[in-house]
Amino acid sequence: MDDHILYEVTDQVAVITLNRPQRANAQTMEMLDDLDAAWSAATCDDEVKVIVLRANGKHFSSGHDLSSGAAMPEKITLEWIYKLEARKYLEYSLRWRNVPKPSIAAVHGKCIAGGLLLAWPCDLIVAAENAEFSDPVVFLGIGGVEYHGHTWELGPRKAKEILFTGRAVTAREAEQTGMVNRVVPLDRLQDETMELARHIAQMDAFALRQAKRAVNQTLDIQGFYAAIQSVFDIHHTGHGNAISVGGYPILRSAAEMKEALKSR
Fold it and tell me: Residue 194's pLDDT is what?
């Protein structure tokens, strides 16, 4: 794996670390592939009972890297965007959500847009006091990121508020909605997360698997999986509209979005 993703196992806990601090852990396509490989390694390792996702640097993740220089087709079509995002974003996030082992995200600093696609699939979230969660992609003409956890994680009114305004939800707000399990001091984030992971790792592996399955299946029966698929298609009406009126929104409006966010 590339050095942008670090992986180690200790005390039956697999620790996956985002390691692109100079870019606030913005995700390139290659980085997402390496991240998926790390999740797969943890899933297949019978010695691993719990997975922790953490990040080096000041921020958990600033989202998808809008200036990574990734190869682009000569003509950008909705079909090309749809296929790319279906695999790299939606498929990966759903796969991580359904890994049959408990997972914990340790989040600090900014967790923006695509960063949510890394944190939300985890079963538990431990947040530092300085953590902020946001999805400001309405600035790009899109109604929300590809994996629509917003309504499930925050409730409908809070979900609408952060989408309509682009503002961040603080760690304490997120804890009140149930999106975050615990809020801890920044200097205690890693220790508290690992302590929780080791505690869970003492439980029976099959019982943990079945407990996770029971909760996820209940959410799916309530409509989670169908809603995620449906809203992914709604997401792409934004891309389609942008193409029809002037071009791929990420290429056209990233700088404008960054400027708008500076004033908030």
Answer: 98
